[in-house]
Amino acid sequence: MSHNRYQITLANGEGWLLSSVPELSSWLDRFARIMGLEPCTAPSVCHHLHFATQKPPADWKYDDLRSVTFWYHPEKNDIHCEMEPPDDVTDVLAHIKMSQSLFFIFNSALLHGGMPLHAALLEYEGKAVAIAAPGGTGKTTCAGRVPAPWRALADDLCLVVPDPSGGYAIHPLPTWSRFFYGEPCDDRWTVEQNVLLHGIFFLEQAESDGVVPVGTGEAAAGIAGAADQMMRIFYRRMETDRGRALRRQVFENACGMAGSMPAYKLRATLDGRFWEEIEAVL
């Protein structure tokens, strides 16, 4: 194992210890830095994710995602993530492996009623909102325009999990595309940070700013769609039955979330004050 071990704890209490073989220690250190994780010496977690260059013993099941392979066993809490050591921990392939390694968080969240969302995460006076939209349609622009006391915690990807209070909490996750174009990037996200989610907004470009409530069915479809945008890379690389089961879990969780979470269409202009429309319904 590397000398550095890192812990991730989500708002629902799920905890993970991350470790690696020596050949992957530099890669793990960079992964942890981007995720805003600090080395831990006395972890208190229930799961262990070990990054390795070889597969574990026989009788383990696996999900082959091409760049990484996850090995898991029904009688163990450990997961092994097998990969080839990258030649350069700052190159595109190294970051692709990092982005795919988040599958272990996504899968855990799905099992407990949560899911990843292709959405910007904004916070206002301790209340979080998710702004969901396909890539290139304005999430990052919205995140970059909000004034104080608004804060943009993520502009592309976030993770929703049930909160012990009975609602949902939301965590920021890295914008991996910033690392995929070969340009220097030193950004980091504090993944363990979470805020209670108070609404989901489906972004639409418009000629005037406004919010319009949506019904439960439309909200469920929109939430599932925002999750599928993040999960489809995993679906298409898995066996058919495994991918189908994940899609079903996403839809079931989306229906549960839509039944208890306010959802709206957010109509936003390029130079308007859309955040004031959100404030009015929080």
Description:
This protein is of the alpha+beta class and 282 residues long. It has two domains: 6-101, no CATH class; 115-281, no CATH class. It is built from seven helices and 15 strands. Strands 7, 8, 9, 10, 11, 12, 13, 14 and 15 form a nine-stranded mixed sheet that branches. A hairpin with a 4-residue loop joins strand 4 (61-64) and strand 5 (69-72). The protein is globular and about 60 Å long. The N and C termini lie far apart (47 Å). The model has no long low-confidence stretch (mean pLDDT 92).
Measured as a percent range, the helix fraction is 25-40%
Number of helices: 7
Rounded to the nearest angstrom, the distance between the terminal CA atoms is: 47 Å
**Global mean pLDDT:** 92
* Stretches with pLDDT under 50, minimum 5 residues: none
From the alpha carbons, calculate the radius of gyration and give it in angstroms.
19 Å
**Structural class given helices, strands, pairing?**
alpha+beta
User: How many E-type strands?
Assistant: 15
Strand content: 25-35%
- Helix-strand pattern: EEHEEEEHHEEEHEEEEEHHEH
Number of domains: 2
Largest sheet: 9 strands, mixed
Which word captures the global form?
globular
